[in-house]
Amino acid sequence: MARVFTPKVVTANALLEGDVIYQTATGWTGDLAEAEVLTDEADADLRLIEAAQQTGHVVGAYLMDVDLSTESPQPAHFREAFRARGPSNYIHGKQEVARNV
Predict the structure, then answer these.
(1) Which domain holds residue 41?
(2) Residue 30 resides in a domain
(3) Number of folded domains that form the chain
């Protein structure tokens, strides 16, 4: 039995900063809400190949499952939500901003 393709986005880490980034139709963004949601498996495979070829900008590109049950795409797995928050060994960067809000 064939598996059902679930919505995905291409994600990677920015080569210089190390931040989690998501592919858009025209480039990359740090905001998952702006990511290009891929609902066709062939399109997703092509976009992943394009991302993997951008070795001067990104590292570790892969397809990430997203949940579309809310207004904007959300990570379908806890790992992805955790990864987007940044390192967990000390508070800095994105975690520091969130703590002070």
Answers:
(1) 8-99
(2) yes
(3) 1
User: pLDDT (tens digit, 9 = 90+) per residue, 65-98?
Assistant: 999 999 999 999 988 988 887 666 556 556 565 5
Asked if residue 1 belongs to a domain, the reply is: no
- pTM for the full model? 0.82
The SS3 assignment for 98 reads helix
Q: 39 by DSSP, 3-state: which?
A: coil
pLDDT at 88: 60
Q: Which residues contact 35 (CB under 8 A, 6 or more apart)?
A: 9, 10, 11, 22, 23, 24, 29, 66, 73
Strand order in the sheet with 8-14: 28-29, 20-23, 8-14, 58-67, 74-75
Sequence letter at residue 1: M
